[in-house]
Design a protein that fits this description.
With 205 residues, this protein is mainly alpha-helical. The protein contains ten helices and three strands, in the order ααααβββαααααα. Helices cover 53% and strands 6% of the residues. The protein has a three-stranded antiparallel β-sheet with strand order 1-2-3. α1 packs parallel to α10. The longest helix is centred in the last third of the chain and has 21 residues.
Length: 205
């Protein structure tokens, strides 16, 4: 039977078709909590918490300054480094807002140029992989690599599991196209399918 045009991979841009077939790696809240417990200093703890709680890309996080915070409205302004929404606002939980403001108050001397994270993407990768190794969440233990962008995936999946709608997640992530957000829904649908299939018993003939 011919495959309907709407279902052919060639009916989508190659990159998008590949994304829809890909299952996204993510962390559970318990795994993130374990990583936070193995941070060796306040800045690395803040980095993990910001990535997990805001869904920011690492290139966006390393540009953050206190000027991006609105403690009264409890939001953080994230400036996009990719095509899409140039600036977006993400709500801040009380504890993260307090952690950010406490860092500004007590560690201003460690913020050259006012940056919370005054280092490169590569250095951020080394911080995250070091924390993961100490926490025992490296490839062998968790079955996945721990890298900065996995917190963005985890942020989106966590919102989906808590019934946040795709358009809202799209806005929080700053995606120009909701199709980029839909890959997270595809991951959960695949997980649900596997869980359901495991309950099906096939009798011997």
């Amino acid at each position: 039977m011919p495959v309907p045009v709407a279902l052919r991979a060639t009916s989508l841009p190659a990159r998008r078709a590949a994304s829809l077939r890909r299952i996204i790696a993510y962390l559970t809240p318990d795994q993130v909590a374990r990583l936070l417990n193995f941070c060796h200093d306040k800045r690395s703890h803040l980095l993990v918490n910001v990535l997990w709680r805001t869904g920011a890309r690492i290139t966006e996080a390393i540009r953050m300054t206190p000027d991006h915070l609105d403690p009264t409205a409890k939001v953080i302004r994230i400036e996009s480094v990719k095509r899409g929404v140039p600036v977006r606002q993400v709500p801040l939980a009380d504890d993260l807002a307090a952690e950010l403001m406490d860092y500004v108050l007590h560690h201003r001397d460690q913020m050259p140029g006012g940056l919370f994270f005054p280092f490169s993407r590569g250095h951020a990768w080394r911080i995250i992989t070091g924390i993961a190794a100490r926490a025992g969440l490296t490839n062998g233990a968790s079955g996945r690599r721990i890298f900065p962008h996995i917190f963005r995936h985890s942020f989106a999946i966590h919102h989906l599991k808590n019934q946040t709608g795709l358009p809202v997640i799209q806005a929080l992530l700053g995606h120009q196209d909701i199709g980029s957000t839909a890959i997270y829904l595809k991951t959960l649908q695949q997980e649900d399918a596997v869980a359901i299939a495991r309950r099906v018993v096939f009798s011997e003939p």
